[in-house]
Amino acid sequence: MVDADGRQVGIITTREAQELAEQQDLDLVEVAPQAEPPVCRIMDYGKYKYEQAVKQREARKKQSHVIVKEMKMRPKIDKHDYETKKGHIVRFLKDGAKVKVTIMFRGREMVHPEIGQRLLRTLADDVDELAKIETQPKLDGRNMTMVLGPHAVAPQKPAQKTGPARPRRADKPAAPAAPPAEEPDQAEESATSRPIKVTRAEGG
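Given the sequence above, the corresponding C-alpha cells read:
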C-alpha cells in the first residue's frame, strides 16, 4: 500500500488499509489491480478524479486540429471570379486553415496543363505573405491540385511586468530640481536686469 504522501507502507491486509484510510478521512483506491499483490493508495478520490479530468481537457486543447478547405477554379477563370475566390482563400488562411486549390480541366483544356500550373503559381505569389506551398501543383486525372498552408505565427513576447511606484515619505520632501545652467553671457545679463524684491521687517 502507498499512503497519502506517496510513501510505501508495505504489504498489509485490506482491512488494515481501509482502517488507515478512514482514520485520515480519505479513500482507499486500487491503482494497480494487475500487480501481485494489488497496489492500493490512500487518497481523496474526488480530488483525484477532478485532476484527471483537468489533465484530459488540457491534452485535448493541445491536440492540433488541422482544417483543410478546398477551392475549385477553371483554368480560364476571369479576373473578377479569380479575385472573389482569392478573397475566400485569404479568409481561410487567416483563420488558420489549409487550402487545397483544384484546377478543373474540361475537354481539350487537358492539352495545355501549363495554364493551370501558371494560375496556381500566380495564386501562390498573391498570398505569399499569408501562406506557403505545402504540396506543389500536380496533375491528378483531369484535375490539378496544390495545397497552401498558413505561415506559423511567432509567439508574442509577454510584456515585462512592472511593480507599482514606491510612495514617497511625507517627512522627506523631494529635493527641487536644479535649474538648467545658463550660458555665461545670459547669466550676467540676468544678474543685472532682474529686479530685487525688498521686504521690510515690521517695526524697523
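The chain has five helices and six strands. Try to locate this feature in the C-alpha cell string yourself.
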